[in-house]
Design brief:
The complex is a heterodimer of chains A (332) and B (468). Chain A is of the alpha+beta class and 332 residues long. Chain A contains twelve helices and 14 strands. Chain A has three domains: 87 residues, Orthogonal Bundle (Arc Repressor Mutant, subunit A), CATH 1.10.10; 73 residues, Ferrous iron transport protein A (FeoA) (SH3 type barrels); 80 residues, Ferrous iron transport protein A (FeoA) (SH3 type barrels), CATH 2.30.30. Helices cover 42% and strands 20% of the residues of chain A. In chain A, the strands form three sheets. A six-stranded antiparallel sheet of chain A has the order 3-8-4-5-6-7. A six-stranded antiparallel sheet of chain A has the order 9-14-10-11-12-13. In chain A, strands 1-2 form a two-stranded antiparallel ribbon. The longest helix of chain A is centred in the N-terminal third of the chain and has 29 residues. In chain B, 74% of the residues lie in helices and 2% in strands. In chain B, β2 and β3 form a beta hairpin. In chain B, α10 packs across α11 and α13 crosses α14. The longest helix of chain B has 44 residues. The chains are: A alpha+beta (332), B mainly alpha (468). At the A-B interface, α11 and β13 of A face α1, α2, α3, α6 and β1 of B.
Chain lengths: 332, 468
Amino acid sequence: MNPWIWFPILLLAATFLPRYGLLTLYKDWRSAKEREQLEDALKHLLDREQAGRHASPESLAGTLDLPRAKITRLISDMESQGLIETRGSQLHLTAEGTRWAMHVVRAHRLWERYLADEARMPLSQIHNAAQKREHTLTEAQLDELDAALGHPTRDPHGDPIPTREGKMPSAESQPITARQDEGPVRIVHIEDEPAIAYEQILAAGLRLGQVIRIIERTPGRIVLSDGETEYRLAPTVAANVGVTPLPESEIAKTNAVPLADLSQDQHGEIVMLDDSLQGFTRRRFLDLGLTPGATIHPELGNFFGDPRAYRVRGTLIALRKDQAEQIWVRPV
Amino acid sequence: MENTTIQPNDILTKAETLRGTLSTSFRDEIVKSLYSEAEHIARRAVKTAKEKKYDLDQKIDRLVTSPITGLPIMLILLGIIIWLTVSGANIFSNAIANVLFGIGDWGRAFFNQIGMPWWITGFLWDGVYLGLAWVVSVMLPPMAIFFPAFTFLEDLGYLPRVAFNLDWLFKKTGAHGKQSLTMAMGFGCNAAGVVATRVIDSPRERLIAILTNNFVPCNGRFPTLIMLATVFVAAAFPPALTSFIAAGTVVSVVLIGVAFTFLMSWLLSKTILKGEASAFTLELPPYRRPNVMRILYTSLIDRTIFVLWRAMQTAAPAGAIIWILANIHVGDSNLARMIADWLNPFGLLLGLDGVILLAYIIAIPANEIVVPTMMMVYMGAGMMVNGPGTSAGIFDLLVHGHGWTMLTAVNLMLFALLHNPCATTIITIYKETKSYKWATVSVLITLGTAFLVTFLTASFARLMGWVI
């Protein structure tokens, strides 16, 4: 038999082999690519809707960086699957489309949580890594990941993670006028409607992220203070300032110093572990006995001054400066 | 009748809603309560007298981690261990070699007597057996001294202090402080060092430790370094100082290797293993009185015999190949000589020669046989030989007989330090990483470094007119 006969046979086999053939591989690659594009499109629509704007084929083409012809095909594809509706030039997510988009956002943010906490990837890299991985998980796998991570509510950037039912936890802000106690709160939202109230709030000098407390409350006015300046607002205007109570951790931090700031043999009581410390590293610290309430002191330095060894619960534990800065202590 | 049974789903939903109301630090609270419970029990059950030992521990710790004395103490301990290994190994090596080579002579004589063909006798006794005997006699004594000494420090609790002292350097290169422990293990055997990287829990930092472990010279490479240090460096000093000078030279080579470890770790962190140093926590356990029996067991059975057995498995075939190369004659030359001649131009470019490169190719399975293979080819022998008995004899053979210079000696030391891992280590790297890619990378970066560095030193020395 002519040995050359094997050449076309092998070529055919390599192309059409059921699982590992080139054709199958290409098809798999194609369908993965298509799913990626579709999911990215859904995410874009969701993004726009949450920002209160509408998505259009143009905005979609810009975000996905695809030619118009492909965008048109993608849109008609999504329409026929019942994921979106077009009204004029506006694109809207259907209920089914929203659910799917939420799934992708959930996948993205859970991945980020995992990469930051368990794989301990630097924060600057997790977004791109999650961008690649968010398309690969099924709902069931995502639930497993969610449970393994302990049902986190926020991603490492502080954005909320949607629930498995596809609901985005609200930003939990309430008008400052609804606050009854005097505790410190953080401004997380300033309503821009009506404009006249918005102007007044800005003119008074309040801004997003500021930590304030209410120091006086009468039917005629509300007086707020950030510790240095006092702000007076009419209650109707103040109702447009959305606040959220400071997390306990923020309050605890106010009279604590980082462990790294203790000097040799100066004792301190651990107040809390920083919120930025999550997942594997936090568990490791807790396992080592670095729990709130434990007393600790730096005992050993070395030639380079970093790391230092700390005595806690009778054992010596060496921590780098970066980690010691994430443990808050009260000097005693 | 109204039926209000609770469905599993209701419980899940309830849990789901309750979860949202949990304070974010509830896990901390759980651990805290576990600890306070443990403290409570401990307070009732454990009586603490004011311990003297605790104070002693602290005093020792202040000394061995102090900014002033910490690093010198570390260097002195390293020097002592290497000196013990160098000077002690010499005595035992000769004794073991005498016995094993004696058996070889007897076996050869026996085979000749019963009329075996010369090539069976040669292949078995001068090839396979000699390879085995050589590896055992060269490798066993340093390991049997080094591993117990190392295990002693490990058992004492000193090694974590080394990691503590050096961690800052590792942090700056994007690596993990515990890498110093795996490097210390690498002195014994790089394959063992690669396995030891399991203590590093960040995958990226563990890979760095694996890929750079080979820059720490293992026991198997000590003989080459010791021979060169004795013949080329120590010869200039009074005989009484020989072992100290040899040990000092080996320590310097080791420090160069450590410098390359940091450099390569940094390069890897910047390129293929991009990332920043992750969290580092290290417990510094209290010092313990070393347990002699455990030290002997761990170091001799778990480590020495284990490593030796693996080396023997690779040395036997290597011995066979060496014998074949030396005994297939082509014209008035043999195969080994021919390959060496063919490699010679490239060897000279690196400040080495063809024989050295040939020895390193044959020695991929086990680095212990580099020196005997070189001697075999230089002396035109049909089997591995010990070379001239004295330093002066070796010096004469290499320098006057085969054109060695100080550059050859220095570059051979560098090449021995930097070249590719032995076969056992490569296989271990594959097993630990489960990846052909990383096993290949480990060879490429070490061999690349070795070629580059020797080429640069050779070119520099020639440029300066120190050698021709």
